[in-house]
Amino acid sequence: MPISSPAEKRANHFIELAAADGRLLTHMQLQKLVYLAHSLALALHDRRLVANNFYAWRHGPVAPHLYEQLKGTGAQPVHHLLPEAMPAFDLDPQAQEVVKQTYEAYGRFDGWELRNITHLPGSPWSLTSEREAYGLIPDDLTRSY
C-alpha cells in the first residue's frame, strides 16, 4: 500500500475537484475535507491518507503544516494549488476514490457547516479537546468513530 501523502497534496485534489464544479473552497473547508477524507481512509482501508497529524484546534481538526500554507487566505476562497504539493494527480486509485467520495458527500458544505460536523458530541475532535486543547487527535480514535 502506498505511503500517505502530505495534507497539501490532498488539499490540491479537493481544489481540483471543486474547480471542475466551477467552485472554490476556503481554508476551513480544505482543512475539514482533508480530515474527513483521512478519517474515511482509516475507517475503510485501515490506512493513513495524510502523513500529517491532525490536532483539536478551536474550530476543528487542523493539520498545522497545511494551516501554515493557507493562513494568508483567511476566510477567502483559495484560488491556487499549493506549490509544495503540485500536482495532485499522482494519488493512487484507492486514495483518489476516498477523496472523491468525501468531496461528493461533504463538498457542498461551507466551512462552518463542516466545522459543526467535526464538533459533534463524541467525535474525535470533541473527545480530544475535552482532554487537551490543541491536542493530537489519535488515529485510533478517528478510525473507531
Structure description:
By secondary structure, the protein is mainly alpha-helical. 52% of the residues lie in helices and 7% in strands. The protein has seven helices and four strands. It has helices at residues 7-20, 27-45, 64-70, 93-106, 111-118, 124-131, 139-144, and strands at 25-26, 55-57, 60-62, 77-78. The protein has a two-stranded antiparallel sheet with strand order 1-4. A two-stranded antiparallel sheet has the order 2-3. A hairpin with a 2-residue loop joins β2 (55-57) and β3. α1 crosses α2 (27-45) and α1 (7-20) packs across α4 (93-106).
List the helices and strands and how they pair.
Elements: H1 7-20, E1 25-26, H2 27-45, E2 55-57, E3 60-62, H3 64-70, E4 77-78, H4 93-106, H5 111-118, H6 124-131, H7 139-144
Antiparallel strand pairs: 1-4, 2-3
Helix pairs in contact: 1-2, 1-4, 2-4, 2-5
Condensed summary:
The chain has about 140 residues and is mainly α. The chain has helices spanning about 5-20, 25-45, 65-70, 95-105, 110-120, 125-130, 140-145, and strands at about 25, 55, 60, 75-80.
Work out the helix count. 7
Fraction in helix? 40-55%
H-E string = HEHEEHEHHHH
Give the biggest sheet: 2 strands, antiparallel
The low-confidence parts are none
